[in-house]
Write a structure and sequence with these properties.
By secondary structure, this protein is of the alpha+beta class. 19% of the residues lie in helices and 22% in strands.
Length: 124
């Protein structure tokens, strides 16, 4: 809950998801490929300018964390267009009320949600 939301700092609010493959070989291949990509970039950049990739952990399992902030600063994107929050993300318009001249909810902040739906025994 965002009680006292008027005093919160918009630039720190975010949503995130953590993904793990629970030690499956397919997920481990993804982790290995991310290490390879990180190594390739590190050879192309000046020394010590790229952080070494380390997957996060979920218990004893490798995991990847992804997040996005709800707002973008006008300092970072002075001409970006504001877009409305999805009702399922902001059902009571709390985040909408926090939009200001300094911070806006733009395309880079939008998260799309997908669901797997079964229809006559087939998934769509």
């Amino acid at each position: 809950m965002l009680s006292g939301h008027k005093s919160l700092k918009q630039q720190f609010l975010r949503q995130s998801v953590q993904i793990t493959g629970l030690n499956t070989s397919t997920f481990q291949k993804c982790i290995d490929n991310l290490h390879r990509i990180n190594d390739a970039f590190s050879r192309s950049l000046p020394a010590n300018t790229l952080e070494i990739f380390f997957p996060d952990k979920f218990g004893n399992y490798s995991a990847l964390n992804f997040s996005t902030r709800y707002f973008t600063s006008r300092n970072d994107d002075p001409i970006g267009s504001a877009i409305p929050f999805n009702h399922s993300v902001d059902p009571h318009a709390v985040l909408t009320s926090m939009t200001s001249d300094r911070y806006f909810h733009g395309v880079d902040n939008e998260v799309l949600y997908y669901a797997r739906i079964e229809n006559d025994g087939k998934y769509q």
